[in-house]
Design a protein that fits this description.
The structure holds two protein chains of two kinds. Chain A is mainly beta. Chain A contains no helices and eleven strands. In chain A, 0% of the residues lie in helices and 56% in strands. Chain B is built from no helices and twelve strands. The chains are: A mainly beta, B mainly beta. Chain A binds chain B through residues 1, 4, 6, 32, 34, 41-46, 49, 93, 95, 97, 99, 103-110, and chain B through 4, 8, 36, 41-46, 89, 96-98, 100-106.
């Protein structure tokens, strides 16, 4: 299957700082990327849907000003957690999908964010 | 809204044991159903899927049948291997797997030799 990478795999930051997480589709063009958040012993919760060249669509309850998503190219989407707080500590996972080719989402390995 | 309920575990089995992971769903429409697997240190991978009632998805010895009457999509494997140790997620989407996925909580399986 197609490969999706995330960078960094782990990040530790101080409260109040911003953190950027990158999601890249390595061998295909992703018209859509999804960002998920996973709490311990919880399922993956969809945060937002990101379409290349347009604004992201956020799920109910997700603060768009806190979780900035940019999908500037067909192979890269970024999630920026602004003014991070300890409650933002979580595992963030992206997936990528190309509607014209394969009707399957391909997932990145995830990024563990710890806010001190 | 749509939701997925699955066994949470963790579950530990011996090699060659029979595996069943229960999954039930609620959906407003006619969803597609999926099982994803996450091996240690890796991203989620699609294990199998079914898009309509009575469809059976199968892959790597795993099977699951879309049961509309019981709103279930239980995962089974007749003889597990150590390499099957992973976290298994049941999921649904409203259409074709390309729309939003709703996941169960995941179940960690450990298979001992």
């Amino acid at each position: 299957g197609a490969v999706v990478s995330q960078h960094p795999s782990r990040v530790i930051c101080k409260s109040g700082t911003s953190v950027k997480i990158e999601c890249r589709s390595l061998d295909f063009q992703a018209t859509t990327m999804f960002w998920y958040r996973q709490f311990p012993k919880k399922s993956l919760m969809l945060m937002a849907t990101s379409n290349e060249g347009s604004k992201a669509t956020y799920e109910q309850g997700v603060e768009k000003d806190k979780f900035l998503i940019n999908h500037a190219s067909l192979t890269l989407s970024t999630l920026t957690v602004t003014s991070a707080h300890p409650e933002d500590s979580s595992f963030y996972i992206c997936s990528a999908w190309n509607s014209a080719e394969v009707h399957e989402q391909f997932f990145g390995p995830g990024t563990r964010l710890t806010v001190l | 809204g749509n939701s997925v309920t699955q066994m949470e575990g963790p579950v530990t089995l011996s090699e060659e044991a029979f595996l069943t992971i229960n999954c039930t769903y609620t959906a407003t429409g006619y969803p597609s159903l999926f099982w994803y697997v996450q091996y240690p240190g890796e991203g989620l991978q699609l294990l199998l899927k079914a898009t309509k009632a009575d469809d059976k998805g199968s892959n790597k010895g795993f099977e699951a049948t879309y049961r509309k009457e019981t709103t279930s999509f239980h995962l089974e494997k007749g003889s597990v291997q150590v390499s099957d140790s992973a976290v298994y997620f049941c999921a649904l989407s409203d259409w074709g797997g390309s729309e939003k996925l709703v996941f169960g909580k995941g179940m960690k399986l450990t298979v001992n030799p």
